[in-house]
Specification:
The structure holds 3 protein chains of 3 kinds. The longest helix of chain A is centred in the middle third of the chain and has 17 residues, at 90-106. Chain A has helices at residues 22-27, 30-41, 57-60, 65-79, 90-106, 110-120, 126-133, 153-157, 164-170, 193-196, 198-214, 225-237, 247-252; strands spanning 15-18, 45-47, 84-87, 123-125, 146-149, 176-178, 219-222, 243-246. Chain A is α/β, with parallel strands linked by helices. In chain A, strand 7, helix 12 and strand 8 form a beta-alpha-beta unit. By secondary structure, chain B is an alpha/beta fold. Chain B has a single domain (36-212), classed as Rossmann fold (3-Layer(aba) Sandwich). Classes of the chains: A alpha/beta, B alpha/beta, C alpha/beta. Chains in contact: A-C, B-C. Chains B and C meet through helix 1, helix 5, helix 6, strand 9 and strand 10 of B and helix 2, helix 3, helix 4, strand 1 and helix 8 of C. Chain C: Residues 1-27 are annotated as: Disordered. Chain C: Residues 1-14 have a biased composition (Basic and acidic residues). Chain C: Residues 333-403 form the 4Fe-4S ferredoxin-type domain.
Chain lengths: 259, 214, 501
């Protein structure tokens, strides 16, 4: 949405294609909605290319390369025309950047690999888009709660968003950030890992959930809703009070605002 | 086909995708690591390993070796062939010390019954607190600095380099000449039980380093 | 013991402690084997403590090195360059070793290597040998091959001694007895040392220093009388024929120095072209493995040395599956491994499960890629190993030679799946994946799925899903799941946003 009022805002003149990701689309629609609210508030024009489906990593990471290829093709088709593609998931964005070209090469499709590389270079997780592209850390958010942050593995080590999420959280008015012990250890989700090695996955997530509950926070913030689903599933079962929330949903809320 | 030919043939068959020759590695070899004072750092890092380090001038060396032997409780000592004459004579004169010079005939059992060894060294490495013997004159064959329980090791300040790359550069000549090397960083140690470090397993349990300056 | 003396045998009629029974049976695939580790609370506490300690030590000494990332890149580049022309470097190594007076042997596999070793030991007339800790002799099952030939092989590394006397199997590359605590070690020493040599001293306590002292005493006689020693090598310098062993306790030096005959088993991937290349690896290895600036002892030797150490020096160059890995341009990257264990120590799966579940002497993330590379993906253990990871990627960051472990895990998974498809095994998963792939191939398919899901969200009167039966019980056994929402994002966008834009 570009309007005269957006002039002077950090996102002015920028059109952003929203990569909602399949899991957020179906299971956590509030997260992509928050991304829309937030980016529009910062002056961006947000579009949602409807051809998009999925990053394909559930196939890739389970060893099904040919089955992942349709996702690469739909992604390239949906997003090739945009300067900025932004998604609320370090994991899905990481898969786009780290795996799409490889999958195309494995399939012997060099043309697709070239296109995938080009669009991957313009794909960002919401936190890095705000901090590194728009250059903002204070997005005008208000969230008067105690929160703890779990840096999900793929945000940290594949998308490599660095401390962008923490910079954003620290600038949120009213927010109290509580440090999470063993924050950098995996929650044990790992996609199909949690089904193929259920016992190990449970042992990992039980530890993570305990560390989260030990913080005494009201909210567990992540940049990946599936990791949060994993952790909060255990917390809920144990009658713990920490609620999961995506970073974008905190950033979208303003004082007196309804988001 | 012999195993040799088989293995080499398999290696070659595995590498058919490799067409071009070895490219250069983007690494500058043999560079020093920057530090304020190489010798000070050496003393610091060797001490970190729970070894004793004593600094002295050249003339004080025999006296300092005597002191090391006494303080570690050594009564018998073996000296490698090629040990400094002055040092050898001083130790011979010590009343309560039995001195043997290695002529190659001492067995492992003889060395096991010997309290201490005094050796020279080739290189000291400041960053890692390491002493390297290339087993040249005064440094002895390898068993000498291994079996006796106390190792008094003389390091010349001029032989202390900043870090491993400089050390490897200096030692390359010895290796190419076929000499064995022994790199020693503190006394023998293990962390095999619950990752708790314990000094003193099979090698000398006491490492006493005398750093000779000037 | 002299050659004429009758060797002492234990109650099982063996010269050395029998390994655990389960190592002689086909082991279970990882998910099943992992349960045993997860349920062993003592082992879990031991591992939590030990891996935590070593992780912190590593982080501290790595932070001291300003150019650590450049150093890792150099290690990666040197290994890559060497592996890509391995045949040339191996021929050079053989020439240098021969010139230095060593005898070079080649082994295609474990059987070849063990045959050579047994023959060499028999030629000396000795009935026992001592060993430097080495992964490769574990890999080829050398101790058991020697036992069968009537030769006792004694482990001399403290942790390997604990494992051997404990009728146990190593569970870690660097610290094979990492799964044991001091109390367990004391019991093993008290019960077993006397059966195989010098007994543990009376009143032995649990103090690590006393336990290490008991090992020193137990092994001293063995070192002083041993005529034959067997080692591996951390590095083999092609240019000079120099072998390098990196260790801490001095047991390595004892073995490399006191005996008359020295037999070293060297995997063909251990070659480095020049002496100078050592400057990179001698900085990378100690900091990554024990978390020290430098390990207490590093020995280098170039064939026999006149008047010093073993005069009969043998080197066995071993393939044993390494060329399988080499033939895979991606899998080849795993051959850079210098066996530091940093990936094990940082791995959240390893920390909870322990090393035995991996069914190999190479456990942890590196084992999960190396075993399928060396042994193939045909047997159930090797098929399961690439999936023994949540792909969290912590291992990638600590690997001193920058092996992209999670990428290789995914690559191995692909190989396993291709194998499955070829043999039309387990049709359920491929069918599921094919169906899901169809959904993702076109947004209209995904929309239909989303509509079904949101309809369920609208109609079902529940907020939370608790324990479920069937395959989903694996997830819901300890986790609740929120009910799917009544509207997908796509539906919301169409209703609320399209007009606004």
């Amino acid at each position: 949405m570009t309007s005269p009022s957006s002039t002077g805002l950090p996102g002015a003149g920028k059109t952003v294609a929203l990569f909602a990701t399949c899991a957020n689309d179906v299971m956590f629609p509030d997260t992509p909605k928050a991304v829309v609210t937030l980016l529009e508030r910062l002056g961006c024009r947000v579009v949602f290319p409807e051809e998009q489906t999925c990053c394909g990593q559930v196939f890739t990471n389970t060893g099904y390369y040919p089955e992942a290829l349709p996702s690469v093709k739909t992604y390239v088709k949906a997003f090739s025309d945009y300067d900025y593609v932004v998604g609320p998931s370090g994991s899905c964005v990481g898969a786009v950047r780290h795996q799409h070209a490889m999958l195309a090469e494995e399939a012997g499709d060099h043309g697709l690999a070239r296109e995938a590389t080009a669009v991957a270079a313009r794909t960002f997780d919401i936190s890095e888009f705000l901090v590194n592209v728009l250059g903002v850390t204070d997005v005008g958010a208000y969230f008067p709660h105690r929160v703890t942050y779990h840096p999900t593995c793929h945000s940290m080590r594949v998308a490599k968003v660095g401390d962008a999420p923490l910079q954003l959280l620290r600038a949120v008015r009213g927010l109290q950030l509580i440090e999470l012990e063993f924050a950098e250890q995996c929650c044990g989700f790992g996609g199909t890992f949690s089904l193929k090695n259920p016992d190990v996955s449970r042992a990992m997530v039980n530890d993570k959930a305990r560390h989260v509950m030990d913080t005494g926070a009201e909210y567990l913030v992540t940049g990946d809703n599936l990791c949060a689903l994993n952790i909060s599933g255990v917390i809920h079962r144990n009658r713990g009070g920490v609620k999961p929330i995506h970073l974008a949903e905190i950033l979208a809320r303003t004082e007196g605002g309804n988001q | 086909m012999s195993a040799r030919d088989d293995v080499l043939a398999r290696v070659r068959a595995s590498l058919t995708d490799v067409a071009e020759p070895d490219g250069p590695v983007d690494w500058a070899y043999g560079l020093p690591t920057a530090m304020a004072d190489v010798v000070d750092r050496f003393v610091e890092t060797v001490t970190d390993y729970k070894a004793t380090v004593v600094r002295c001038g050249a003339s004080e060396l025999p006296g300092q070796v005597m002191r090391g032997l006494m303080e570690t409780g050594a009564r018998t000592v073996v000296l490698p062939a090629g040990t400094d004459e002055m040092l050898h004579r001083t130790l011979e004169m010590a009343a309560d010390l039995s001195v043997r010079v290695d002529d190659g005939s001492l067995t492992a059992a003889d060395l096991d019954a010997t309290d201490a060894v005094v050796t020279a060294s080739s290189v000291g490495i400041a960053e890692t607190g390491t002493i390297v013997l290339d087993h040249g004159p005064g440094q002895g064959r390898r068993a000498l600095s291994l079996v006796p329980d106390r190792h008094i090791c003389v390091v010349r300040a001029a032989d202390v380099v900043s870090d491993v790359p400089e050390a490897v550069a200096r030692l390359a000549t010895s290796v190419r000449a076929g000499r064995p090397l022994t790199w020693i960083s503190g006394p023998s140690a293990t962390s095999d039980i619950e990752l708790s470090r314990v000094e003193g397993v099979h090698g000398p349990r006491h490492l006493w380093v005398i750093l000779v300056e000037g | 013991m002299t050659a004429t003396e009758q060797p002492r045998r234990d109650k099982d009629g063996r010269l050395t402690p029998a390994p655990p029974e389960w190592t002689t049976r086909p082991a279970a695939p990882f998910p099943e084997a992992a349960v045993k580790g997860l349920e062993n609370q003592v082992q879990r506490a031991n591992l939590r403590h030990a891996t935590g300690t070593i992780r912190a030590k590593r982080a501290r000494v790595v932070a001291e090195v300003d150019n650590w990332q450049d150093l890792r890149s150099a290690g990666e580049a040197i290994k890559n360059r060497t592996l890509r022309h391995l045949d040339q470097h191996l021929v050079t190594l053989e020439e240098s070793l021969t010139k230095a007076g060593a005898t070079v042997h080649w082994a295609r596999d474990a059987a070849d290597a063990n045959r050579i070793i047994v023959d060499l030991v028999k030629a000396t007339g000795e009935q026992e040998v001592t060993k430097v800790k080495s992964m490769v002799t574990q890999e080829i099952g050398m101790n058991e091959a020697l036992e069968e030939a009537g030769i006792a092989a004694w482990e001399t590394d403290l942790a390997e001694l604990i494992v051997q006397l404990g009728h146990d199997f190593p569970s870690h590359i660097l610290v094979p007895a990492i799964h044991r605590n001091r109390g367990e070690i004391r019991e093993i020493f008290r019960e077993e040392m006397g059966v195989y040599g010098t007994p543990a001293p009376e009143g032995l306590s649990e103090q690590p220093a006393e336990l290490a002292g008991a090992a020193r005493t137990h092994l001293r006689n063995k070192f002083l009388r041993t005529k034959v020693a067997i080692s591996g090598a951390n590095f083999a310098v092609a240019e000079t024929g120099t072998l390098v062993v990196v260790e801490s306790e001095g047991n390595g030096r004892m073995n490399l120095t006191l005996p008359e005959t020295l037999i070293s088993v060297v995997g063909i991937e251990k070659v480095l072209p020049t002496v100078e290349d050592l400057e990179v690896f001698l900085r990378l290895l100690p900091r990554s493995s024990t978390g020290e600036r430098m390990n207490p002892y590093t020995s280098m030797w170039t064939g026999p040395s006149a008047g010093d150490g073993p005069q009969d020096v043998h080197v066995i160059l071993l393939d044993n599956g390494r060329t399988n890995a080499l033939a895979d341009p991606k899998g080849r990257e795993a051959l850079r491994c210098i066996r530091c264990s940093a990936c094990l120590n940082i791995c959240p799966v390893y920390e909870r499960v322990g090393g035995h579940a991996y069914g190999s002497v190479y456990p942890g993330p590196i084992g999960a890629i190396l075993n399928p590379q060396l042994r193939g993906v045909e047997n159930p253990i090797d098929k399961s190993l690439p999936f023994a990871s949540s792909l969290c990627g912590a291992c990638n960051e600590v690997c001193p030679v920058k092996i992209p472990i999670s990428d290789l895990l995914v690559h191995e998974r692909h190989r396993v799946v291709e194998e499955k498809k070829r043999h039309q095994l387990n049709q359920f998963e491929p069918a599921m994946m094919k169906a899901a792939s169809w959904v993702m191939a076109d947004h209209k398919h995904l929309e239909a799925a989303g509509t079904a899901s949101s309809l369920a969200g609208k109609l079902l009167p529940i907020r939370t899903i608790g324990p479920l039966p069937g395959p989903l019980s694996r997830w819901t056994q300890n986790r609740d799941v929120p009910m799917v929402p009544a509207q997908t994002f796509r539906q919301w966008w169409k209703e609320n946003h399209d007009e606004r834009a």
